[in-house]
Fold:
Amino acid sequence: MTKYVLKRLLAAAISMLVLITATFFLMHAVPGSPFNPGEQRNVPPKVLENLRSKYGLDLPVWKQYLNYMNSLSHGNLGYSFKKLNYTVNELIVSGFPASAVVGALAIVAALAVGVPLGITSALKRGGWLDWLSMILATIGISMPIFIIAILLMYVFSMKLQILPIYGYGTASHLVIPVVCLAFSPIAYITRLMRSSMLEVSRQDYIRSARARGVSEFMVIAKHGVRNSILPVVTYIGPLIAILLTGSFVVERLFMIPGLGRYFVTAVSERDYSVILGITIFYGAFIMLCTLLVDIAYAIIDPRVKFTD
Amino acid sequence: MNKKHLLPRFWSCLVLSCLVLALFAAPAAFAADAPQKVINYANGDAPPVLEPIMNNYLKGSYLVYNLYDGLARIGKDSKPELAYAESYKVSDDGLTWTFKIRKGSKFSDGSPLTARDWEESFKHRLSPEVASPGVDLYLFVKGAEAYNQGKGKVEDVAMKALDDDTLEITLENPTPFFLDVVCYYVPYKMELVRKDPEWFKKPATYVGNGAFRVKSLNPQTGFVLEKNPHYYDAANVKIDIVNYNFIADDSIALEAYRKGELNVNDSINSEGIKTFNNSKELVIFPRIGTTYISLQTGNIKDARVRKAMSLALDREAITKSILGVPYIPAQGLVPYGIHWGGKEFRDVAGNLVKTDIAEAKKLLAEAGYPDGKGLPTFRIITMNNQEDTDSAQAWQSMWKQIGINSEIATYESSVYWDLIDPGEWEAARDGWTGDYDDPKTNLFLWMAYRQGPEKDVRWIDTPNSKEYDRLMRAADSELDTEKRMSLFRDAERTILEDMPIIPLWHGVEPILIKPEVTGITKSNIGHIYFQYADIAAK
Amino acid sequence: MKKTTDLPGDEAEYLTEGEIACLPDGLFERLPDGEKQTDVINRPSVSYWENARSKLMADPLAMAGFVVIALMIALAVAGPMIRPYAYDEQNYSVINQTPDGDHWFGTDKFGRDLFVRVAYGARISLTVGVAAAFINMVIGVIYGGISGFVGGRTDMLMMRIVDIIMAVPSLLYIILVMVFLGAHMHSIIIALCFTYWLGTARIVRAQILSIKSQDFVLAAKVIGESDLKILLRHLIPNSMGPIIVTVTFLIPQAIFYEAFLSFIGIGIAVPVASWGTLANDSLSNMNTYPHLMLFPALAISITIFAFNFIGDGLRDALDPRLKR
Structure:
């Protein structure tokens, strides 16, 4: 087990290196640049030149790469090219908590609703709950998140006036964003759970457990859920990273000061250092989550063994 | 079978806990504001640059000029008036301006503010090492351009503090509108700026001299501004707090305004305009900008084709029906808000832009392309926002009426300006908002020194462009208003006869203001000022 | 008599009456007569695919789904032809009209006929959704299948590659593809193909990992079936449930991702519109002109409902363990 984890960590380090390199050159291959002569037309060309050399953009790309890797080895992600005089570290530190809070709540909500709903509808296949979950799941995936957001806002903020429209700070600010973010995962988890629970409930060990007189609760909890939750776990791994590091649309609509907004804005502004910084952060996070998921597999599913 | 009991129990627990959570959450929504005069303002997403010295964006300036004041400031009527200068003198040649600074002027932290601070701040921002992109208005001062471009010395920049209260500025050319310009020469507390590169991230070191100062800030959600007690005119500032919110989405801002979470909403879309069209809450300020189509004169060589393209456009339909914004259909290049003596320049110079399909078809035929036969499919490039893509679809359809076929390619703004340069297009959306009340602020864009292969417009070496340049240069050194304006009028006619660009509309600044809020001022370049505002008791 | 397992290839075991009689009372209930009957094997032997097809045909919801999708395809193909308007034909005298006999779905701010635009949008959205989902499913199933089945170092390497691709911000290469290939439908599909298979691959691999140590796989190995055959005949069909669910989710995701691309301004070029861009554009005028959002949103929802029903039906039909 320890050996396995160590090996995975080593692999993750190599993956990160590949990731950083790939992103760096990909980013520079995308047309456009942070200091754009056309966009800032009242800027004398000489000033633009000074600005570019101040941020090292006048060097050849490979040199910029070496410089970047050098400062990265000191844990420094550099300065933002657009939010001038802000460091990337600073932006990540300021953006991550909000994204993480909203994301974590959304995952908890998605699991708390999705898993039981999936189990229930699998066990009572064709029953009203199965239908309800089916409809819910379909609505969840058949509406884009921005429409869900606007509708929720319309009902709860404008008509009922019980929730604020935008902002971040109090618990009431979190309700609509969390519901929006959880909507699609709930749908997905419900469907995955239902589908795999259906399979598992036909397996021998469920029958034999029942036959042995194990209580129905234990049959479902111990054998059923444990064996059927695998696809959900697989799904949740990358989802955690995606949600915790922010959803652009929700953060933009509700003005949540999170990482997702920084990222999409950085991509469209070609803010190289912010793109890379957030990618590294996100990449490290995703790899950690996958590692945890793979370990979780082995713990949950006795059939999976740690292989090297 | 206990699973029958188990599941309903689980569900009721879940529903119950949700209800409890909602109950706890709900009262927090009604947190009341303090009994102060508070403006809740929104104007789109966070400005790209938050550092005042490095700022070059309009949105950033909206914020900055409530925190900083110049020697002059933009008054209630959006005309410049003296602020930190109590008087000024101009030499007979119009080149040397001497300002007397108010005695006892202070920064927002209470420390003294002297002419030397103005000089030091000006030269700091201008220095090539700082590489601030927002220095174009600084270049009127003699020696400023050379220093900024690394060719001159800082000592040769002709701004000097003669003593603590006297600032002498010598200009490159006589500049009758210079009082407009000094509104944007603002002092920074250099001692803090030099010492702490993070000064603008903390309220304590974010020191200005404007009507308001920073109380708290978050780079993503917004600023809280409070009244600056050390402001020279603090007695006349009625507003205690300005919550400057960053709200990226116009629909959200509109809902927040309707619900009363905002009382001034500056990010307003066509739905907002439609909803409040007949209401006094919708206030429309003029903006000295013109949106136009740049034509690639290298690809569309015949001026008659370019003119036909202009004649085919129904500007009224584009602005009123399609965009749903009360823009003024363009009548030339110089917008409303630019004055010729006491009158609007536009009214004196007249309407130079027409819509006439028959005439357009005739011109196209004369050029040898009857009904567009023989013309290639034109490429329209535009930025990817809703307004620009909507507008481009209208041109496409209107040009089709006279037989010109075109296809639209949309790009992000960061790519768009890179693609403008290679010139692989026929028509591109463009626009410009001026900086001061003089036609030069709009017309200088097409002067020869700004043209050429690395620039976005290539209108050079035609008889008209040469004449244009001559007229513009003549206007530059002309001191007599009447003659100067006539030169600008002729220049405008000269360029529109050749039509390298097609004017579309003149800008406006629509804004929603609740009835109890009075005195909100927007300058002719769009900046908003809260220092003259007041809120009536309900 | 009890069939102890319904896995394919397994021999059913039977207990004799005598053996049952030996069991202590009270531990088992006697089956009611009706249930005994169902245990009698009275079905003709049919092949896997025949069986799947007949099950699918018998599923009314899945059939309804197919009908709806067929109607949508008909709308996409014939819709623009049955009305006298072109999708980009502007008419400023009839802007923002609510639905009537002439303009079935009303008109937009250019006076363009919304019905024709929705029908035209169906071409874009359906093609993007189905093509992206299908291509990604194929890549994902093959990749995940190989990774999970071969295991060991190969699996580790393949999964690390997935991790890396997953972590590279997809927006970057999507912008790259869109800028170089232009804002066309095929560039969106190509762009989507870079990322979408990753999730499928992970799900398939997880599924394969968990079933490959089961007896029926061992049995297949013992009787000397080739690895490829085991993968294709046993492992993949047995993980079909989650795969189908993933794919039915991929279709709406692809449709929405296309809309998201327009949301941030790098989507399909105007004046062509997909359902996503139609819904997106209507957002800013939702309160004044709700019909502009209603029809594209309805089209999306109905289509996705239909795909879901089909997915459900397929899942049941293709899963060899769900014989009825």
Notes: Residues 114-150 of chain C form the longest helix (37 residues). Residues 1-15 of chain C have pLDDT under 50 and may be disordered.
